Amino acid sequence: MARFEHTVTVAALDRHWFEEAAGAVVDLFEGSREQGGAILLPDGRPIHGLRLLKGRHLQPGARYGEAPEEDGKPGAPGAPVASGPAGAPVVQEAIALREWRPSRTVEVESLMAEESLSVRVGVRLREPRTPRALEVSLDGHNPKGGSLYRFSGRARADLHAWWAALDRPSSAPPAARAPVVGRAVHRLAKARLTVTPRPADDGSWQVSVVLSVRGRWLLRPVAAVALVFARKPVERGFREGVDSAAEEWAEMLAELPSLHGEALRAQIADELTAP
């Protein structure tokens, strides 16, 4: 088994702002309605890029997407594929609503399919108005390939445990259990990723990311030998990936509005309806 670890320092996200923003988004969708396929916010403005393709709005089984475009013109709602440049297929991602109970659970599933790749992603958010946990599942395969072209992954972020880890004194040891855990499985190998935060003295977060990789079945010895030669480039790629994620986090925080109450709700509505 190979183990890689890297720690980065990132700016902190205000918990109260995050939960207020999450509640505003849920309330806007809860108050929305469908008209002619368009999804209208409570003020009557349509959400950009989101249409009801099948079923009833906010009911389990409802399917959402965006009408495909061809030569710059909107296609028919529900059409799965349009032709892109030189006849290349442009795949439209379909989003299915599995559960809508804003006080308990919201669950959606998306499916993207093209000739060489089919990927299904499931997302479940528990207690959405003040998010408690986020669960993500991923399954993919090449429709024309065998088992070597199949992969899957599962991840869970315990948000209450995340905030609890950051409420500890900066001098305290890291939380015993990582609030974020992800696992990926392929026929040749499997991997486990954990993310653990701790507060820094200046109010920022120190986030430790640990990746463990091992071969599967009879390929374990082969994978062990391969990692002897590939360890340095893999470790370098892992560190660069974590550093890049930290930079993207900083960019995202810089773009978040420092608003509250109705001003925050109005800003989120503007973002949802902007082209």
Walk me through this protein's architecture.
- There is one protein chain.
- It contains four helices and 17 strands.
- The protein is α+β, with helices and mostly antiparallel strands and 275 residues long.
- The strands form three sheets. It has a 13-stranded antiparallel sheet. A two-stranded antiparallel sheet has the order 6-7.
- The longest helix has 36 residues, at 220-255.
- The chain is globular and about 60 Å long.
- The N and C termini lie far apart (47 Å).
Label this structure with key terms.
13-stranded antiparallel sheet, 17 strands, single chain, 275 residues
Q: What's a quick, concise take on this entry?
A:
The protein is of the alpha+beta class and 275 residues long.
Q: Low-confidence stretches at least 5 residues in length (pLDDT < 50)? A: 70-90
Count the helices. How many? Answer: 4
Shape: globular
- Radius of gyration, in angstroms, nearest whole number: 22 Å
- Tell me the strand order in the biggest sheet: 1-17-16-15-14-13-12-11-10-5-4-3-2
What's the quaternary structure here?
single chain
Task: Determine the strand fraction and express it as a percent band.
Answer: 35-45%
The computed structural class is alpha+beta
- Biggest sheet statistics: 13 strands, antiparallel
Helix content: 25-40%
- N-C termini distance: 47 Å
Encode the helix/strand succession as letters: EHEEEEEEEEEEEEEHEEEHH
